[in-house]
Amino acid sequence: MTEGYEVLAYGVVVSAISFLAVYFLTPAAIRSLVARGSVVQDYHKPGKPPVPRPGGPVLMAGIAAAELVLFAFTMNYGVLAILSATAIAFAVGYVDDRRVMPGWFKPAALLLAAIPIIAFNAHGSHLNLVFGSTFIPLLYIPLIFVIMPVAGNTLNSIDILNGVASGVLAIACVPLLAASAIFGNIYVFLAGLPLLFAALAFFKYHKYPSRIFPGDSGTLLLGAMYGSLAIAGKAEVIGVVALLPAVINSFLFLSSVKRLAEHRQVKARPVAILDDFRLAASKDRAAPATLVRLILADGPLSEEAVAQKIFRLAIFSALLAFATIILQYYFLVVR
Amino acid sequence: MSLALKLFITGMWAMLLAIAAFLVLVVAPVEGMRGEIPRIFVSLIQAVIAIAAVVLFVFALSRLKRAYVNRKLPSN
Q1: Which end of chain A is more exposed for a tag (fewer CB within 10 A), N or C?
Q2: Which of A125, A126, A135 to mutate to test the interface with B (most CBs of B within 10 A)?
C-alpha cells in the first residue's frame, strides 16, 4: 500500500511530467505541423487563418510519459490499462485525422479501447448508482464496450470552438478525480492527474485564438481516457454528470440528425457567421439543434463569448457532480 | 448565462438521479435470485430492466429537449 507522502510525491511528479511535456512540446509541434503544411482553416475568424492540426500526438506523448513513470513507481496494472485504452483511442483518432473516414468509424473502432480495461481487469463488478451499488459481474463487460466509444465521441463532439474541448475536459476532470479517489483507489486518482494537467497545458495553446487544434486524435484520447478513469475509479454516473454540457451537445446533435454522422456531413449548418464574425443561431429548420445554437438563440455573440458560456456551463455541471459525490458518499459510505 | 440552459442541465441531472434510484431499487434486488436461477439469466434480467430504463430515460430526455428547443428555436 502506498503511503501518504509517496502518493503526494508520485502525484507531483506525474502531474509535472504531463504538464511540462505538453507545455514545452506543443510550440515545437506547431512549428513542425506548419512546416509540413498540416493545417486547417479556422472559419470563425477574419481571413480564415490556417491553424496546425492535430495536437493529439503531443497530448499522447505527455500522458504516456507520465503514466509510464507512474507504472514504474507503482507496478499497478490499472495504470497500464488506462494508458493502453488511451493509446488505442489516440490511434483511432490519428487515422481519422490523416484520412476522411465514415461516420461509423470512430464509434466502431473505439470499441477496441475497451479491451485493455477488461484484459487488465481494471474494472469492478459493482456499478455505483449514487443511492446504492449493484453487483453486475457479467453485465459490466458489455457496459465497458458502451462507455468507451460514448466517452470518446462525446468529447469529440464538443470540439466546436477554440479551446472548448480541452477546457471542458479539464473542468470535468476535477470532480471525476475527486470521485476516483473516494470511490475507486489512489492509483486511479494518480493515473488521472496526467489527463488533467496535460489538458491544462494544452489549453494554453488551444484557447481563443487557437494556435493548434487537438484533432480527432486529441479529443478521442482525452475522451477515452476520461471514460476509462470513470470505469476504473467507480465513478461512472459522476463522470456523466461532470461532462453534461458535452453529453447534451451529443444528444441534441444525434436526436436532430437521427444517425451517426460527422458534423461535416450535415448540410444545414447550426450556426451562421455574421459580417462582423460574430456567431448567430441558424434560422434554417433543417439545421441540427446543438449546444452552441441554443446558446446563440438569445442573440449573436463572439466565438470567445460563446466559449466562455460553455465553460460556465461546465463549471455548473462540475458543481452538480460534486453534489452527486456527496449524495453517493452518504448512501455508499456513511449509511 | 442562460438560466434556461442551466435549468435544462439541472433537469437532466434530476432525471439521471431518478434512473439511478430506479436501478438501485429494481436491478439490485434481482441479484437475490442467484440461488434459484443461473447467473447468466440473472444478468439477462438485469440487462433487460437496465435497457428498458435507459430507453425510458432517452424518451423522457427527448420530450424535455423538444419542449426546450421549441421554446428557444421557434423555427424548429
Answers
A1: N
A2: A135
